[in-house]
Amino acid sequence: MTKNLDPLVKLDNAGVNLSSKWLVRGVSFEVLKGQIVTLIGPNGSGKTTTAKMILNILNANEGSIQINTKKLAYVPQKVNIDWTLPLRVIDFMNITGEISKSLILENLKLTGVENLIYSDIKNLSGGEFQRVLIARAIAKKPELLVLDEPVQGVDFNGEIALYSLIKNISDTLNCGILLISHDIHFVMSSTDHVICLNGHVCCSGTPSYVAKNPAYIELFGEHTASVLSLYKHQHEHSHSIDGSIVE
Amino acid sequence: MFDDFFIRALIAGIGVAIVTGPLGCFVIWRRLAYFGDTLSHSALLGVTLAFSLSINISLSVFLVSGIVALLLLSLQKRTKLPGDALLGLLAHSSIAVGLVIIGFLTFIRFDIMGLLFGDILSVTTNDILIIWLGGSIILIILFFIWKSLFAATVNYDLAAAEGMKPDRSNVIFTLLLAGVIAISIKMIGVLLITGLLLIPPALARNLSNNPRQMVVLSIIGGIISVLLGLFGSLEFNTASGPTIIVAALILFVISMFVPSTDKKLQK
Hints:
Structural class of chain A: alpha/beta
CATH architecture of chain B: Orthogonal Bundle
Number of helices of chain A: 8
Distance between the termini of chain B: 50 Å
Strand content of chain B: under 5%
CATH architecture of the largest domain in chain A: 3-Layer(aba) Sandwich
Low-confidence stretches of chain B: 263-267
CATH topology of the largest domain in chain A: Rossmann fold
CATH class of chain B: Mainly Alpha
Mean pLDDT of chain A: 84
Number of domains of chain A: 2
Oligomer: heterodimer
Largest interface: A-B, 29 and 30 residues
Radius of gyration of chain A: 18 Å
Number of strands of chain B: 0
Order of helices and strands of chain B: HHHHHHHHHHH
Largest sheet of chain B: none
CATH superfamily of the largest domain in chain A: P-loop containing nucleotide triphosphate hydrolases
CATH topology of chain B: ABC transporter involved in vitamin B12 uptake, BtuC
Helix content of chain B: over 70%
Order of helices and strands of chain A: EEEHEEHHHEHEHEEHHEE
Low-confidence stretches of chain A: 229-235
Strand content of chain A: 15-25%
Mean pLDDT of chain B: 88
Number of strands of chain A: 11
Number of helices of chain B: 11
Shape of chain A: globular
CATH superfamily of chain B: ABC transporter involved in vitamin B12 uptake, BtuC
Shape of chain B: globular
Helix content of chain A: 25-40%
């Protein structure tokens, strides 16, 4: 956290309540410029909800969220394009703001899909579409980039290339990146700050700190923890089935 | 060459087609066909209110359809009823209330058929003014919210996250839909207006591979349908509204046989 300035995003005890159930609660963290912050946690732990709360798609029902930039770009977890809408990749690249064609091509090239610029979105494979989504987001040159499982469905080599691209983007654009990922290797090796969620923040800190944290080990098991190695101490708390803390 | 009423009908019809084209595309993309039906059915109530309070028909239809539209939007968030049931509930209740009110208005002679299917003979210079003026306002507003509405149509979350204000443009679009129904009700009628909103964009979909193309083609398709329909109605002495829709249907069927670029891979 040497690049400290005003945080791009600052969450303070934020939570979302939907039909009287807390999807996620008590979330506090910051994303700074040039920093990659990762959200990890099991399914249903509130990772996407947290991202949507930051992006103003969902309202926080408690706590506060401060966003200090207007240049946001988002790669959602799921995008379904209705087949009645004839939409080519080039049209899709422009949906939230006009981007020049050379810039579009340049960014599609970065994610390896420049040959698909005039293809209909419906005819892309899942992995190809993910690459288009990432290209669109980075073409906007955002100050804050939110990526929700950006490499799902991408082939193995592509995954490695895209992760190194994401790492690059954070350096070249000096933007803050909030990443939701299941790829423990990338999370542990290339990100600045890890937040382990399970309905609330279980633990957070640098990758090496989190990997040693008993809460993390309990959530992900010994074998994932041993990626970085560690010792173990007494659990601070345990979880019931819905993720709430039991003393 | 033609009678005055026919010229008036042509000018009015072309005006309507230019507005229904782009709005109809969004109706199809956003799967709002039944929503459009509900709004147009509620227009019947608008017409009867116009007669009983002796105010302008288009104004009254716009107000009633607009209120029904906003009611729908807020009810959809609040009730446990599924969307289609809610739409049916409002569509049929507003038709029923409208018909009951007609029953009470014994002092006015009512042309129910004209209301349901449109009456081209009755188009006045004043109606033309309403169509072109109202239509221009609708298209200008649509132009300004286009970017945001389109982003919200492709993906709500993306639009919301990247500051496109999708909720606002959704509400405005719904009101524009009420507006287009208000200006075209006299031409096409309560029962068939959704047809003119849907069929030209549907045929345009068969022929286009990007959104702009689809909008342009649905305007052209709409104009051709109106022209063919009106000439047909004159020639065969049939009701104009249905004849316009039949013309659009014929164009749609033809469009299905035109080979399109992305058809091969369509599932």
